[in-house]
Amino acid sequence: MEKIWFGLVLLSLAAHAFAQLKKELHMMQLNSYRNSRYWSWTKKNFSQKFVFSILLMAIAGVLALLKIASIPAYLVWIFGAGFGAYRLLTEKHKKKLAFTRRAKTLFFTSIGLFVVANTAVVWFVPAQFTMLTLVLMDFMAFGWLILANFVLIPVEQRIAQWYYADARRIIKSMPQLKVIGITGSYGKTSVKHFLTRILSEKYNVVMTPGSYNTPMGVTITIRNHIKPIHEIFVCEMGAKQIGDIKELCNLAHPQIGILTAVADQHLDTFGSIENIQKGKFELIDALPKDGVGYLNFDYEYVKNHSPIAHVENHAYSLHQPDADYQARDLQYTAKGMQFSVYHKNEKVMELETKLMGEANMSNILVCCAVALRFDVPIKNIQFAVKNLQPVKHRMELKRNPGGITILDDAFNSNPAGAKMALNVLKQIEGGQKVIITPGMIELAEKEYELNKVLGEQIAEHVDYAILVGPKQTLPIQEGLKNKNYPEDRLYIARNLTDANQHLMKIAKAGDVVLYENDLPDTYNE
């Protein structure tokens, strides 16, 4: 009978271990399968992540030390492990685990390592300490995942190299294909979508889908999406460290480069704003002698960089009078924005769009500049701009059935973008102006100070503030206090669900709500 109970104990442990490994695989995926980034995340979230496993380990330790092997003890154990597995498997996530080929390989390899280790425990560890040791193995789920990832690195590298080489072969086999590379601290995804729509008025265009802005993402796009009929490839290029953009350029070989911004984003991986500048300018450096670069002079670390001598450079700006391309005469309307495009101080065209905010105006401006170079007729550009759709979660204007206007700017907030979004919120027609935000991340040592500034800006623009995450939003709370923001106009939510529930209590028809950033699952408190 005792063997049956022990078997049930092992099954409950296996269920909890499976759930724990699946959760850790999700976090590893969100950290780009990089052991160093995943380990840094693990250290930051250690107590939060493993409090339940530690409780199980404590129970097992007590049972071992007291040599308790009774049915009640087994029931406590089975219920605890089973409940823990259920809790992990039913957690809600903003971005679900994608069981790609790599994810499956890593998951089953880590399970294999776990099974081998636990089999050894059952055979060689004294019986009274078996449960305690097995729980320790379960507790070390992150370790099995790191080990499995390390073991698989050579295999994944060989696979990636083959795909990468095949993608390069495809690009070289299409000399007629024009490749436009887009990078920047932010704005690149919007520019990609807008430019593809405008150029499609005259050309057959393909772009990198979703957030496929890594070497593997671009490789997949080239191998699966580019066809002989395509004339232009619009390629988004992301980077977390120096060398990332260079690797992408060696793959795609862009002839035109767009640099949307160099600013305080991904400081935790780049280390400094100077490194971000160097990393982003790898795109312009990689252009051929007949290449053309479009540079956003509204950012200091774009404007102050020495011109890349071997390529044709064009500056674009909303505020710099010496830029080649400028957007002026901005007017907000009930339907969106109206503004004019100038080249060398001569008006080229007037535009209207349903999109909102200066960031969108800047993105449209550079798209128009590139489209003019590709000889897209002005009337076609105007038609395309008028019909541009907002990129999801990037200053997306919505209206819910209750008459509340939503400004959805929930994707990847940054200091410049957040300030712009607050300005739009203040200017847009409506009743009470509300913000829901957890603040900004990936700003390294500047993160606290920049979020405190965000709090001060919120105090000057917003009637009611809902902050998501008591710990995460401490610097925003400090910024609000610095401006004597009334406490009865502030609510600290536990999570986004709590924030939305509170919004329904205080909002009414005619109010305008700005969602500024939505942190990934790795930042859940």
TrEMBL record:
Location of the Mur ligase C-terminal domain: 393-514
Any one GO molecular function term: ATP binding
InterPro entries xref list: Mur-like_cat_sf, Mur_ligase_C, Mur_ligase_C_dom_sf, Mur_ligase_cen, MurCDEF_CellWall_CoF430Synth
SUPFAM superfamilies, alphabetized: MurD-like peptide ligases, catalytic domain (SSF53623), MurD-like peptide ligases, peptide-binding domain (SSF53244)
Keywords: ATP-binding, Ligase, Membrane, Nucleotide-binding, Transmembrane, Transmembrane helix
Residue ranges of the TM segments: 51-84, 105-125, 131-153
Domain Mur ligase central positions: 182-371
Protein's name according to its UniProt entry: UDP-N-acetylmuramyl pentapeptide synthase
